[in-house]
Amino acid sequence: MLKKHEQENVLVKSEQKRKITTLQDNINRLRHKVGQSHKTIAKEEAALHASIANIGKQMKKLEELKKVCAMSKNFFVFRKIVFVSSL
Asked: Is the pTM of this model over 0.70?
């Protein structure tokens, strides 16, 4: 009877060890997924920051071009007024 009880204990311990091993495997797999997700997010964030910087540069160029166009338009209007007034 005692031997049978010991065998049951060994079986229960073996089953518990298998469950623990399975759970540890799951934990390691999930940790790996989390690590990969963090890396992917960091790469995407860096790409977005670069994109934002690029858009900022484009905005500055457009503002400068807008000023140049406004000045040239004012100059054109000024020349037109001078030309009309000289007639």
From this structure: no
